């Protein structure tokens, strides 16, 4: 087959088959892992830029596959989204996060990531509200992180649903702001409690005058509209200094802390002294 290109076509198709098969295997494993409660959560702290105190933590999903080892959350979340498992997984993670948060000091809020698909199904607000009731976590201690991807699907419905969640006392965060399909018009429709500037801007901070200008502009927007501004993915002291100077209200990143087990969050009491 060499020379006429058929060999390459064959192996390309074979590769696609192998990928699809692998995906199906992973999906089956994920389905079982979700049912068995094997998807765990770790929590990465956010710090006030003013006081250095931990104000909240972000719940991040973890899956340690029995043979593959750790699977990245963006990988298994997208498998869950494509296979209709996201609703069940999302509900379970939300319940786990609320349960864990109940054992922490009261001033620490917990932020849970929501997949855009969790907005597609009816009754999100009712399900969240049931979880709060069942776990006893005050709504004021729960934050939900949504991405811009969610807003573009069905703008009207999304904002109505967000308002209903907000009415419960839950805070709504715009995650990964500035990449994807950001539209400033969202801020005319809904006042997010916090906006998280995507890590890519933080990464370019030292080398790009433009990134600095973007962050400054978002901070200005936040001040004007009463939204806290978080910088995520802070890795160096230089970035930290610049971000504080620019007026970011909260910082998150490996410089301060990696994601930690729920037990460790419970031991957080005072300041880190980093900021
Ligand atoms: P994300 O929501 O933007 O979460 C932040 C990611 O950045 C996390 O990766 C976190 O570990 C990582 N990170 C934090 N600080 C630093 C840093 O200083 N440097 C670097 N290089 N990375 C940092 P992780 O845990 O791998 O999660 C990746 C993505 O998977 C998340 O991005 C989120 O989109 C998704 N994800 C994770 N857990 C969940 C979940 O429970 N539900 C949903 N729907 N999505 C989730
Ligand atoms: Ca997030
Ligand atoms: Ca993020
Ligand atoms: Ca991100």
Helix-strand layout with pairing:
Elements: H1 6-36, E1 39-48, E2 54-65, E3 69-71, H2 73-82, H3 86-101, E4 109-113, H4 124-135, E5 142-147, H5 148-153, H6 155-167, E6 171-177, H7 186-189, E7 194-197, H8 199-204, H9 209-225, E8 228-231, H10 237-246, E9 250-251, H11 262-266
Helix pairs in contact: 3-4, 4-6
Taken in chain order, the helices and strands follow as HEEEHHEHEHHEHEHHEHEH
Helix content: 40-55%
Question: Strands of the biggest beta sheet: in what spatial order?
Answer: 1-2-4-5-6-7-8-9
For the terminal residues, how far apart are their CA atoms? 64 Å
Protein name: Cyclic di-GMP phosphodiesterase Gmr
Organism: Sphingomonas dokdonensis
Question: Which features would summarize this protein structure in a list?
Answer:
19% strand; 275 residues; binds ligand C2E; binds calcium ion
Provide structural commentary.
The structure is a single chain. The chain is an alpha/beta fold and 275 residues long. 47% of the residues lie in helices and 19% in strands. It is built from eleven helices and nine strands. Strands 1-2-4-5-6-7-8-9 form an eight-stranded mixed β-barrel, surrounded by five helices. Helix 7 links the parallel strand 6 (171-177) and strand 7 (194-197). The longest helix has 31 residues, at 6-36. It binds ligand C2E and calcium ion (CA) (3 copies).
